[in-house]
Every structure is written in structure tokens, then in C-alpha cells.
Design brief:
Blueprint lengths: L6 H5 L4 H14 L5 E2 L11 H11 L14 H15 L9 E4 L1 H13 L5 E6 L3 H4 L1 H4 L4 E6 L19 E5 L11 H14 L2 E5 L23 E5 L12 E5 L1 H14 L5 H12 L9 H23 L12 E5 L4 H10 L2 E2 L1 E2 L10 E5 L4 H11 L1
Parallel strand pairs: 1-10, 3-4, 3-5, 5-6, 6-7
Antiparallel strand pairs: 2-8, 7-8, 9-12, 11-12
Helix pairs in contact: 3-10, 4-10, 5-9, 11-13
Bound molecules: pyridoxal-5'-phosphate.
């Protein structure tokens, strides 16, 4: 028996990292010492209090049954409280918050919930691949990729976006460019979306990964005509736990909850309870707790070493104010550069994998210790 993929699945491009993983595995199989700056997965451990909470909660039989796809009330309350402390925004935990299985599924499911066949989705290019691939293809929607440009600080310009689109995705702090924005910018995007009947989806997965005193804003600071996706993944080194949250307009949250009700039965209760402890690490002033700022200090040092080293090698690199990505013009087609790096046992991500308009750029993630970064720079030289 042979099984054939659905037409939609056939249209889905291979997920970028799958191809990179194959190339890397081949190099490793040849015995090479590979230094991986590819995927955005923190190498540092989850803070102790969160791990201890998880251990405690998983041992409690009360946490062994289904949660709800909207999430535990106690975690929704904690998310609402955290929004108040961190962004000064009041949200109703029952109607304006939904717990998610990491932010990725919600970024996809929001399109499932609101986009009809033939409608337009605006996706930044470069951008997180889910916006233009799964979100578009599984809804038989039309994706308009709007280029982000270095000369505009990689900010999506709504002046370049088509009117009448059903949905717009934006993401700052940005993967892959490391670009950041302020509330004024978010207000401009939100106003444009409201004026044009477009659903504003704001991907804030890196909101807490900021450097040098910068604190990323929430799109809700500009108003509630939006839905925002946040994540425990990068903030607390919890990528494997699969926990996130969506916060925003009650209609959008209601649609997401209805969709998820058919698809998942909620994040494990013990993971959600660990999530409550994670958010509780923040004090009333909303500043980063020590557990998170210590991690950020590690990334900051690595970022400095990598950026300084790349500059010495002649690359024009901007120091990112947020995320753990270093993004730069590699001076040649980005896949050629990536292939050369793999030859040297280094994994970097070609910009073209995030969108055609990022051709010529590459992304390196600072998830390697300083010594390994120095070694990588030597190999690059
Ligand atoms: C921009 C962006 N959004 C969302 C995600 C999804 O993260 P998670 O599903 O772990 O919350 C990622 C992961 O790398 C990302 O880079």
C-alpha cells in the first residue's frame, strides 16, 4: 500500500530546519566536530524553581487528567496578572487569555479560526516560516510577503501592505533579524489593521529576551484590536515544555479557543502549574527576575564576542538589542555561505530560508559557550 499526502501537504515546503538538520547529520556522520548556531533553541537550563515546581506537580495525581484547551484558570489568572505587572495592561483572564501549547500552534490555529479560502494573509519576509507556509496553505489563503528592509530597520511598513487582507502577522523582537520596535510603531500597525479590517496577529515570543535596558512592549499597550502570542520557551528556557499564551481581543480569543477545543485538550496540568511559578518569579515592578536576567547576561556576553569577531572578519554586523540572533550580510547567496560553513563544521541559518528578500543574509544563534564561539570565528577566518 502506498499513501499519498493531501494536496495541501504536498504544497507545504519542507520546514527549513529539517534540511539543515540533514546536512548537519551528514557532516557529523563523517566524524566532524560540528558547532551549531542554527536553530533557536536555548542551551541553558530551565531555572531551578520552575523545574522543582514541575517535579512537585507531576507527582500529584490531581494533575494527571485532561486540562482544557483554553488552559487552567489558575494559569490564565497568572498570565493576566503578569500582563498588568509587565506591560501595565489589564486583561480579563476568562475572555481575553488562552493558554497555548507553545506559541507555534496558536500562530497556526488563529489562521484556521479566521481565514477563509482565497483571503489574503500578510507575512513579513524574512519571517517565521509558519506565517507564510502552514497558516496560509492549510487555509487555502493567499500569502502576500511584504519585504522587511535593512534601511527601514527591518520594520514591516504598513504602507507597503495590501489593503483588504484578512490577517497580518508581525513579530518584534524579530526572528531572524533581531530588530525591535516601540509602542508608537505598534499603534501605527494596529491602527492600519483596524482601518482596513485586518486581524493584527502580533508574535511576541521574544518579549523577554532583551539587552541593554531595552524592554519590548506588548501590542496590547497600543490597544486591544489584536491578538498577541507569547511563550515560555525562550524566556525561561522551556522550549520542550510546550507552553505559551495568547492574549487579546475577546472575539479572537473566542475563535482560537473554539478551534483548539477540537484539536488539543490543553497543555499538561503539571506544565501549566510550572508556568505559574515561572511568571511568579517576576516582582511587582515587572522587571526581569534574576533567573531570567542571569541568562540574558550569558547571551549578552556571547553576542558581544560573536559580533566583535564577525566585525573583525570584515562583516558589517549590527549589535542586536533583543533575541539571541545575530543577523548579517554574508556577501554572497546565503545558501552558498551556509554550505561553506557546514564544510567548516559550522551550522548557520541562511536568510533565504526566512524569505527571498533576505537573500544574502545569515542568522547565527548565540546558543554556544564563548569558547566555542571563538573557535567558530577562527574556523571562519
Ligand atoms: C518568531 C517566533 N515565533 C514563535 C516561535 C514558536 O515558539 P514556541 O512555539 O516554542 O513558543 C518561534 C520559535 O522559534 C519564533 O522564532
Amino acid at each position: 500500500m502506498k499513501y499519498e499526502f493531501s494536496e495541501r501537504l504536498k504544497k507545504l515546503p519542507p520546514y527549513l530546519f529539517v534540511r539543515l538538520e540533514e546536512m548537519t547529520a551528514k557532516k557529523r556522520a563523517e566524524g566532524a566536530d560540528v558547532i551549531d548556531f542554527g536553530i533557536g533553541d536555548p542551551d541553558l537550563p530551565t531555572p531551578r524553581p520552575i523545574v522543582e515546581a514541575l517535579q512537585r506537580e507531576v507527582a500529584d495525581p490531581a494533575n494527571h487528567n485532561y486540562s482544557s484547551s483554553a488552559g487552567e484558570k489558575s494559569l490564565r489568572d497568572a498570565v493576566a496578572e503578569w500582563y498588568g505587572k509587565r506591560f501595565g495592561v489589564e486583561v480579563d483572564p476568562d475572555t481575553e487569555v488562552c493558554v497555548t501549547l507553545g506559541s507555534k500552534e496558536a500562530i497556526f490555529n488563529i489562521a484556521q479560526s479566521f481565514v477563509n479560502p482565497g483571503e489574503t494573509i500578510i507575512a513579513p519576509s524574512p519571517g517565521y516560516p509558519v506565517y507564510s507556509a502552514a497558516s496560509t496553505i492549510f487555509n487555502e489563503a493567499v500569502c502576500v510577503k511584504v519585504p522587511l528592509r535593512a534601511e527601514k530597520d527591518w520594520l514591516l511598513d504598513v504602507g507597503e501592505c495590501p489593503k483588504g487582507a484578512k490577517m497580518l502577522y508581525a513579530n518584534y523582537p524579530n526572528n531572524p533579524t533581531g530588530a525591535t520596535c516601540d509602542v508608537r510603531y505598534l499603534k501605527k500597525v494596529q491602527d492600519w489593521c483596524r482601518d482596513n479590517g485586518t486581524i493584527f496577529c502580533y508574535d511576541n515570543a521574544y518579549s523577554e529576551m532583551c539587552f541593554d535596558g531595552y524592554m519590548a512592549p506588548s501590542a496590547l499597550e497600543a490597544g486591544k484590536d489584536c491578538i498577541e502570542f507569547g511563550s515560555f520557551s525562550k524566556t525561561f528556557n522551556m522550549t520542550g515544555y510546550r507552553l505559551g499564551y495568547a492574549v487579546g481581543h475577546r472575539d479572537l480569543i473566542a475563535g482560537l479557543k473554539k478551534c483548539k477545543g477540537q484539536i488539543d485538550s490543553g497543555a499538561p496540568k503539571f506544565v501549566q502549574k510550572a508556568g505559574i511559578v515561572a511568571l511568579g518569579l517576576y516582582g511587582d515592578d515587572g522587571r526581569l527576575p534574576k533567573e531570567v536576567s542571569d541568562n540574558m547576561a550569558v547571551y549578552s556576553e556571547r553576542r558581544q564576542v560573536l559580533v566583535d569577531g564577525l566585525r573583525k572578519l570584515g562583516f558589517d554586523v549590527k549589535m542586536p538589542k533583543a533575541t539571541f540572533y545575530v543577523w548579517f550580510d554574508c556577501g554572497m547567496p546565503s545558501f552558498d555561505f551556509t554550505a561553506k560553513m557546514i564544510e567548516k563544521g559550522l551550522v548557520v541559518t541562511p536568510g533565504v530560508g526566512f524569505g527571498e528578500s533576505a537573500e544574502g543574509y545569515v542568522r547565527m544563534t548565540v546558543t554556544q559557550p564563548v569558547e566555542r564561539i571563538k573557535e567558530a570565528l577562527e574556523r571562519m577566518a
